[in-house]
Amino acid sequence: MHSDIPTDPSNLLGQDESSSYIPADEDTEFLQRDELRPIRIGLELLKPELIQREEGIQSTIVVFGSARLHEPAAARHTLVLAEEEAARAPGDLGLQQRVAIARRQMGLAKYYDVAREFGSLVSSSCQIDGHCDYVIVTGGGPGIMEAANRGAADVNAKSIGLNITLPHEQYPNRYITPSLSFQFRYFAIRKMHFLIRAKALVAFPGGFGTLDELFETLTLLQTGKTESVQVVLIGRSFWDSLINWQVLVDNGLISQKDLQLFQYAETAKEAWDLITHHYGVTTK
Questions:
Q1: Are 155 and 173 found together in one domain?
Q2: What is the pLDDT of residue 95?
Q3: HEC sequence for the chain
């Protein structure tokens, strides 16, 4: 029989202190169990989706590029420090290599300015009268990603950052719109959010992360798994020195028409002109 007399809390023997007593949706330790991975994946997909809807984000342009490429002034400072250190130990080959890398990165630093200008140009052209089309979205980190978010912030426009938890510390750059700064646990869900609203992908010089996102997008386009996304590679000399696309064609590994899945640009305006021409966008 059930008693109608309420339990006296003083008679409890720790029942309400056990983790089993915590409601499932409030039990963070329980939610981290391996068996709960499908739930976490679903939540990670849904949360950014709902927030972007609430923020009125209609479409995006994804900007990829190295987190290690900084604005020219910072790159120049790094080069000067490397040269000074190497001068104090002229026989140290490691220091000489650091100088060589710093000098090359000084040459690539111009792309920080290009990415910043691109973010500004796109945002000022498309975020008008409350509309949020072609919103800049980046991986949320420093370098080229920061530059694109910064360009949007320069014209008081929204931009998105999709950060991810990594073994080393990583923080979102300060130019992302705070309400559109997201953190992901799973690369796969993060990649989905890059492309869900994407009209274009603009890839600047970068490392493994940039190449991963670029080839993932090209593969989806090649296999028809995503709708037409305009892919623009910034800096043809860099990309041609990095990837011999024609070798893939010559060996029958891709078709000649696959090389039409992307185009090249050198400046922010060239990249934006390619995208607007592709979609017939009218800008102010």
A1: yes
A2: 95
A3: CCCCCCCCHHHCCCHHHCHHHCCHHHCHHHHCCHHHHHHHHHHHHHHHHHHHHHCCECCEEEEECCCCCCCHHHHHHHHHHHHHHHHHCCCCHHHHHHHHHHHHHHHHCHHHHHHHHHHHHHHHHHCCCCCECCEEEECCCCCHHHHHHHHHHHCCCCEEEEEECCCCCCCCCCCCCHHHEEEECCHHHHHHHHHHCEEEEEECCCCHHHHHHHHHHHHHHHCCCCCCCEEEEECHHHHHHHCCHHHHHHCCCCCHHHHHHEEEECCHHHHHHHHHHHHCCCCC
